[in-house]
Design goal:
The protein is mostly helical and 134 residues long. It is built from eight helices and no strands. Helix content is 55%, strand content 0%. It comes from Thermomicrobium roseum.
């Protein structure tokens, strides 16, 4: 294998900015395309939730007919994130998104944590409990 070295001169830097492949000889300028193969929903279920039974496979197929594939994938990811590795939890997520709409905000548990007002405890009637004794 031949290694090529390009000196960091103003000309080579300008060439690299204009055409990154311009530093290589024409024989080595082949651009290889990499395609990332996403696992199908059944493989995703087996990798993240558990073994795929015929009943669950049928329910997954029904869910794909009812909801977009991105929703089903996102519901599996959310279930795994919260440690709920079962199909019923995933179904409930999908049903909730279908009725309430799928917003891109965090889960309600995370929203509760954001609504916590530290001033309530630092400046309110509980301030003496949380202040530094001097």
């Amino acid at each position: 294998m031949t290694e090529w070295v390009a000196l960091a001169t103003p000309e080579t830097i300008a060439l690299a900015q204009r055409d990154p492949m311009g530093l290589f000889p024409a024989s080595q300028r082949q651009v290889q395309r990499v395609t990332v193969e996403r696992p199908n929903i059944f493989a995703l279920y087996e990798q993240n939730i558990g073994p795929l039974t015929p009943l669950i496979a049928e329910q997954l197929a029904e869910a794909l007919e009812r909801y977009p594939m991105g929703w089903v994938e996102a519901a599996i990811v959310e279930a795994v994130h919260y440690g709920r590795r079962n199909w019923r939890y995933i179904q409930r997520i999908l049903e909730r998104w279908a009725t309430e709409g799928r917003d891109h905000e965090a889960h309600p548990r995370d929203q509760r944590a954001r609504r916590l007002d530290p001033d309530k405890y630092l400046r309110g009637k509980y301030a003496p409990l949380f202040s530094n004794p001097e």
